[in-house]
Amino acid sequence: MSVTGKHFVNDPATLVQDSLRALELLNPDVKVNVKHKVVYRSKQPENQVALISGGGSGHEPAHSGFVGDGMLTAAVCGNIFASPNPGQVQRALELVDNPQGTVIIVKNYTGDILNFGLAKERYSASHPDRAPLIRFVVVADDVAVGRTQGAIVGRRGLAGTVLVYKIASSLARQGGSLDQVEGLAKCITDRVGTVGIGLGHCHVPGTKEESTLKADEYEIGMGIHNEPGHKRSSPIPKLDKIVEDMVDMLTNTNDPERSFLRFHHDKKDHVVLMVNNLGGTGELEMGAISAAAILELQRRGFTVDRVLVGTFMTSLNMPGVSLTLLMLPRPTEESPYTSDEILTFLDDKSNILAWKMAVKLTPPHKKEADDEDDPKGAGEASETTANRRVTISDPQLFVRCVQAACEALKVAEPDITRMDSVGGDGDCGITLRNGADGVLKMISDGRITGANLIKDVGAIAEAVGDRMDGTSGALYSIFFSALAQALYDIAGDNGVEGDRKVGADALSFALDRLYTYTRARPPSRTLIDPLDAFVGVLKGGGSWGEASAIAKEAAERTKNLPAKADRAAYVEQTNLVDVCDPGAWGVKTILEAACSTLQA
Q1: Known binding positions
Q2: Where is each DhaL domain found (predicted)?
């Protein structure tokens, strides 16, 4: 089915910024930091918990359109279908910093989790006294992704995310504590499910891609980034049959793969229904879809307490729709919040243009200059951080180890790129080389000296975060940010002399922290395999050389493992035989070079 490739743009590269400017022109409660693509409340109440969401653009009005009184405090916008980088997210954290704390709510996509998580860790490393005030909630509401398919990455985050932060922000506005707001967000996350359907794929401005769906095909279980759905069917059935299948996926408790909402089907189930336009569906059809969904739920004995119909989370101009159900608690159920309380939060008025339950238009106001200053001293270590030290007897030895690892990565780039061209998108080697160049620049600029490993490791985290894109960059920067935090805690107020045990303890902490942002566990055919093996040997009392040798073996074993995570999971597995995982080979290269220098 053909989707129009024509768009109203000045330049596809500036479309996101051009669109964001409208938000502050239409709503005086909103400002836009154009440089970092952050939309935020111009007057942030200091007695309220802040809520941040975001992700790739192309899903408008989510999330930028929901910033304002009664909903989000800030939204961070990446390019179309691309996660924002950690620098953008960190800027948002600085803009909404307040004594009550901040809850980050993101959709379950690898890039969003890693980059928002990395920003949280980097911010915490720079401001350790405020680290407990930042919480992280992931929404995974796509019932079309079965348990087997999503064993590693989990289900995708879809339109149910909007319900999560709408309800949680209402509690924040009423004075809820950080623990309460986080708890409510997680409560709603556990009770929400979404399924999408498309008649065609969307068209990204500036590209030549076309929908792969035929004129008489439809796809159920669509994502919001042109990802394949659960299944394609032809011919397109009547609307009532389509809606019946969608409701069945949301409410069926007999499917071991997709029974995520535990309904009782005893005519006492109460729900909130959201009918969401994925971008290219006309209002006439939206009305018919909404009626069909309500009638189908009632036919099955559900009580529909609230209905939201409109455009909440799109996939650009996709001709499609998604249905979301929020399963409300029963009076006899053990739940931190009752059904009436949740509905009260949902009904809470919001001064948000895009929120269909409370639309309030305001006249345009004069655009103020972008707030590009850094009043909170972003990027500067706090005074408590500067006073803590982890030292070694030969500072230049640490510098030489870092240099050796970086140079080895640059030499290995062609091999790593070749490996990634088989099972990925061919950019892993270049990404690692860029990170190595960034770290080497830190050394030449005097930012990495070996005098204080806390600062040095923090500088490495900053370099790889700024220079490395995608999943690899986020994973590396999260790991090094956590490593800096671990060294900070180990140092104490009096400082400490670094040795193998200090290194083992810090590396173990960093690996555990990394595990909170990825489900990959060895054996997984990822960079986790050699990293976990290396840390395990050190924790067991082994030497640097022994740990490096075991890490090399783990990296080499990845050529015989099936892919379970990241893009390689979608590749024909026979193509991966005898090809090592590029991420694992990169870790092996780093550890081998650094440990060889250390031993020499």
Answers
A1: 56-59, 107, 112
A2: 396-596
Distance between CA atoms of 67 and 39, rounded to whole angstroms?
7
For the domain made up of 193-347, the CATH class stated in words is alpha beta
List the catalytic residues: 225
Q: Which helix (H) or strand (E) holds 232?
A: strand 231-233
Q: pLDDT above 90 covers what percent of the chain?
A: 66
Amino acid at 134: I
Q: Under CATH, which architecture does the 383-599 domain have?
A: Alpha Horseshoe (1.25)
Q: Is 324 helix (H, G, I), strand (E, B) or coil?
A: strand
Average pLDDT, the chain: 88
Q: Indicate the DSSP class of residue 584.
A: H
3-state secondary structure of 338: coil
Q: Which two tokens stand for residue 277?
A: 């336009």
DSSP 3-state assignment of 196? strand
| 7: β partners | none
DSSP assignment of 59-95: STTTTGGGBSTTSBSEEEEEEETSPPPHHHHHHHHHH
Q: What residues does CATH 3.40.50.10440 cover in the chain?
A: 12-143+158-175
Number of Cβ within a 10 Å radius of residue 261: 20
List, by residue range, all CATH 3.30.1180.20 domains of the chain.
Answer: 193-347
Residue pLDDT, tens place only, 245-271:
999 999 999 988 888 999 999 999 999
Cis amide leading into 319 (omega within 30)? no
Domain span(s) for CATH 1.25.40.340 in the chain = 383-599
Tell me the whole-structure pTM to 2 decimals: 0.78
Note whether 468 and 590 are within 8 A (CB): no
Q: How far apart are CA 540 and CA 549, in angstroms?
A: 14
Kindly report, residue by residue over 91-124, the tens digit of the pLDDT.
999 999 999 999 999 999 989 999 999 999 999 9
Which element (helix H / strand E) includes 250?
Answer: helix 239-251
CB distance 535 to 503 below 8 Å? no
Condensed to tens digits (0 to 9), the pLDDT of residues 130-165 reads 999 999 999 999 998 888 877 778 889 999 999 999
Residue 568 pLDDT: 43
Handedness of CA 370, 376, 377, 381 (dihedral sign): negative
The domain made up of 12-143+158-175 has a fold known as Rossmann fold (3.40.50)
User: Which residues are annotated as part of the binding site for substrate?
Assistant: 56-59, 107, 112
For the CA atoms of 569, 571, 575, 578, what is the dihedral angle to 10 degrees? -20
19, β-bridge pairs = none
Tally of CA atoms within 13 A in the half-sphere of 16 that contains its CB: 27
Reference 353, options 309, 308, 311, 306; nearest CA is: 311
